[in-house]
Amino acid sequence: MFLLILGIVGLPIPDEFLLTYIGYNVYLEKLSYVLSLGSVFIGAIIGISISYFLGIKLGSPFLHKFGPRLHLTEKRIETTHRLFEQFGPYLLFIGYFIPGVRHITAYLAGINTMSFKKFAIFAYSGAIVWGLTFITLGRLLGRNWHRVQFMIGQYRVYFILFILLATISVIFIYWRKGKTKTTKSKI
């Protein structure tokens, strides 16, 4: 639980590998499946909630103060705000499966003052699906764990790049559609 909290807040901890390894230990009957799922869920919701409340506490004033140092212009901040309003809830759910995205979405939800209820519905349900997926995967692949270790090492970069490119493509397509609708309505 503690490692998941730290990983979701933003420390570079390989959460998917950790969860899959927990599933492997469930396969070996060293851990309980139900208790493991409960621990993962609690760790994930605590971590993502901390990130959300940090986003609320630091919020826009933090971005406006330190943004220019990070090359975040007002235009970029506004664009991010609009995109998050449109896609934020879905990113909270899907973001668990995309390394790097799960670390940022909760901060953005807080910065954009998303209601806690809406945040919790999407973020917590995403945590359940994410934990269930990787623990079950580790449990199912238990007998072939040596192959899993090899494949993770060999193909992780390609998988991450695929997910990242797919996410960017979907966002770009919706952004272009929104821009086209805005242009047509002005005409």
Short note summarizing the structure:
This protein is an all-alpha fold and 187 residues long. Helix content is 82%, strand content 0%.
**DSSP strand count:** 0
Largest sheet: none
What order do the helices and strands follow?
Answer: HHHHHHH
Termini separation comes to: 54 Å
Provide a count of the helices. Answer: 7
Note the beta-strand portion: under 5%
Low-confidence stretches: none
* Share of residues in helices: over 70%
Domain count: the total is: 1
Radius of gyration, in angstroms, nearest whole number: 18 Å
Q: Identify the quaternary structure here.
A: single chain
Name the average pLDDT. Answer: 83
Helices and strands: which structural class? mainly alpha
**Shape call:** globular
Structure report:
This protein has one domain (2-153). It is built from seven helices and no strands. It has helices spanning 2-9, 15-27, 33-66, 74-94, 101-111, 116-140, 145-186.
Describe the secondary structure blueprint for this structure.
Layout: H1 2-9, H2 15-27, H3 33-66, H4 74-94, H5 101-111, H6 116-140, H7 145-186
